[in-house]
């Protein structure tokens, strides 16, 4: 079958098209005929040989942690009725999705509702379920000011929409003009560019001097630190990513002194628990099918251009989600 392999750790050029053996479903597994594969930013970090948490795979390997398509075969102890159904699912061991066929655990399958496309389902598989979980844990109240970093990304754009759905007023922090336009289109009341000096002053001014009640920190590094410093007293600071290369860590005594509740990056381990993750993804797909949220798909690339897709993501050139199609 056709696939893309990471031949060694390095830049996007290490992603090379290859022919590899067809996978076989083991007990409790299925094989999915992949039509769409999602790309998460962490996959670009793993490809470079660095990791914000997951263990590094050993090259050569086929990347790709999430797919959408149809079940083509099932293994032992799997209901044969799954064959032919449209599904989205995380791949076994978090790899193997950038290929024509991918193995997945049957207990992670999420059926795609009628009326929702496979690209949208793939875009919501991880980001949708994660966004639902983050919003649940943050305890947003109607009227809260909510700051979303990387608000034009695949996950950030969903956090903006879910926060608005909870009755919040949203401040979108983005890194370019086109992304600012998208954030405004999604309904953000205040939009700031965190690549410019003084962006936190604009956040304070936009919130009447108090700062945001809830912060979703997906960037980390100096931006995450600055966002914590502008968080309102008694607020919530929720860490879910480290696209800058390092996650934000806050001294508990400092947080307690301002009454800020910090939800650390380790919350993602709880959100990845299989049963809960599947249920949250189902909620995200249902919300999209009903028109309450929409995944922002910035660009799609054919499988053979996976290197171009990674390069575009790392250049921060594409708002929303980047997908591979087969």
Overview of the molecule:
The longest helix is centred in the last third of the chain and has 16 residues, at 274-289. Helix 2 crosses helix 10 (274-289), helix 3 crosses helix 4 and helix 3 crosses helix 10 (274-289). The termini are close together. 32% of the residues lie in helices and 24% in strands. The radius of gyration is 20 Å and the shape is globular. Strands 3, 4, 5, 6, 7, 14 and 15 form a seven-stranded mixed β-sheet that branches. A six-stranded parallel β-sheet has the order 10-9-8-11-12-13, with helices on both faces. With 326 residues, it is α/β, with parallel strands linked by helices. The protein folds into two domains: 2-111 and 296-325, Quinone Oxidoreductase, Chain A, domain 1, CATH 3.90.180; 128-269, Rossmann fold (3-Layer(aba) Sandwich). The model has no long low-confidence stretch (mean pLDDT 94).
Quick synopsis:
The protein is α/β, with parallel strands linked by helices.
Which stretches are poorly predicted, pLDDT < 50 over at least 5 residues? none
Q: Which class of the largest domain in CATH terms?
A: Alpha Beta
User: What's the structural domain tally?
Assistant: 2
SSE topology string: EEEHEEEEHHEHEHEHEHEHEHHEHE
Q: What structural class results from the helix and strand content?
A: alpha/beta
Approximately how much helix is present in the residues?
A: 25-40%
**Topology, number of strands:** 15
- Estimate what percentage of residues fall within beta strands: 15-25%
What's the end-to-end separation, in Å? 12 Å
| Global geometry | globular
CATH homologous superfamily (4th level) name of the largest domain: NAD(P)-binding Rossmann-like Domain
Give a quick account of the main beta sheet: strands, pairing sense, barrel closure. 7 strands, mixed
Write down the overall mean pLDDT: 94
Annotated CATH architecture of the largest domain: 3-Layer(aba) Sandwich
Q: CATH topology of the largest domain, what is it called?
A: Rossmann fold
Calculate Rg over CA atoms: 20 Å
Counting H and I runs of at least 4 residues, what is the number of helices? 11
């Amino acid at each position: 079958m056709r696939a893309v392999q990471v031949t060694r750790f390095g830049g996007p050029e290490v992603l090379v098209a290859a022919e590899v053996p067809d996978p076989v479903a083991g007990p409790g597994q299925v094989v999915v005929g992949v039509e769409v594969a999602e790309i998460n930013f962490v996959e670009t970090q793993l490809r470079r040989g660095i990791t914000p948490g997951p263990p590094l795979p050993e090259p050569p390997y086929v990347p790709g942690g999430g797919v959408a398509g149809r079940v083509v075969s099932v293994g032992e102890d799997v209901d044969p009725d799954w064959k032919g159904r449209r599904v989205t699912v995380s791949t076994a061991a978090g790899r193997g999705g950038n290929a024509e066929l991918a193995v997945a655990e049957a207990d992670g399958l999420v059926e795609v509702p009628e009326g929702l496309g496979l690209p949208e389902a793939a875009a919501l598989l991880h980001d949708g379920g994660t966004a639902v979980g983050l919003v649940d844990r943050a305890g947003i109240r109607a009227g809260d000011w909510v700051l979303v970093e990387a608000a034009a990304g695949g996950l950030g754009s969903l956090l903006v929409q879910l926060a608005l759905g909870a009755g919040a007023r949203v401040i979108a922090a983005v890194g370019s003009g086109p992304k600012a336009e998208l954030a405004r289109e999604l309904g953000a009341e205040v939009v700031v560019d965190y690549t410019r000096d003084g962006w936190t002053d604009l956040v304070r001014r936009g919130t009447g001097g108090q700062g945001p009640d809830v912060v979703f920190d997906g960037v980390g590094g100096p931006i995450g630190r600055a966002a914590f410093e502008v968080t309102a007293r008694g607020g919530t600071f929720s860490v879910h990513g480290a696209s800058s290369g390092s996650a934000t860590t806050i001294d508990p005594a400092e947080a307690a002194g301002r009454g800020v509740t910090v939800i650390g990056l380790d919350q993602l381990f709880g959100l990845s628990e299989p049963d809960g993750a599947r249920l949250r993804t189902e909620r995200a797909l249902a919300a999209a099918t009903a028109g309450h949220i929409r995944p922002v798909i910035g660009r799609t690339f054919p499988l053979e251009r996976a290197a171009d897709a990674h390069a575009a993501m790392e250049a921060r050139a594409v708002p929303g989600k980047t997908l591979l199609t087969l």
